[in-house]
Fold:
Amino acid sequence: MPLGREIDDPGLISAGRVAVRIIRWGDAEPLRQLLSENRDWLQRWEATHPAGRSVVPGSVSMRPLVRVLRKQLRAGSGMPFVVLYDGQVVGQLSVSEISGGALQSSQLGYWVSQHVAGRGITTAAVALVMDHLFGVLGLHRVEICIRPENGPSLRVVEKLGLRHEGRRESYIHIDGAWRDHECFVALRGDANAGYTARLLEA
Ligand SMILES: CC(C)(COP(=O)(O)OP(=O)(O)OC[C@H]1O[C@@H](n2cnc3c(N)ncnc32)[C@H](O)[C@@H]1OP(=O)(O)O)[C@@H](O)C(=O)NCCC(=O)NCCS
Structure:
């Protein structure tokens, strides 16, 4: 069950050189270009359709996708962010599967362009978004599920101090097959002063 209400657009949320904001029409072309340039970098970690109907990201216009993603806000089911570094779009951070009712939970997924990897951008963006989900949306749980082979992504959740819940076998269809995932969770109250403040301190 989604939240049961429209989610407000939070505007720009930033810390230093890193910021996130909800995706908009103008992001379609820069994102298509980044997805196209980063084919090899992203393919191994990309969700695919089990029936083999997936289109290659970056090969088609992103405008219809932007429309679908923005609908999630109105439906209360997701928050499709882009990640900015010095004001430039460098990746995406998607909050999906937002559940209301007795769950109050959500899932996070992310990527950044290879040319800016290793600068702490994703870690900062996840911290900003988690603080928003707990502090403003009032969610209770945020989950991040990662393939065990994805060392860089495992470092993101480690640096943020998420709890390791365990392995979900054959959990998500990625790069053409069902893949095991290690699942990490943050619960409201885990980072008292917030994840962004904790990162800045560290
Ligand atoms: C996973 C990912 C989002 C991390 O983003 P990021 O902004 O580079 O994150 P950080 O800068 O905090 O770095 C995280 C780790 O990546 C590794 N890393 C650093 N520089 C790197 C580089 N140039 N290339 C690859 N990995 C690098 C390091 O292990 C780093 O941990 P450290 O800070 O302890 O050294 C990014 O690597 C990516 O987009 N990968 C492809 C898509 C993907 O895997 N998405 C996640 C699916 S769960």
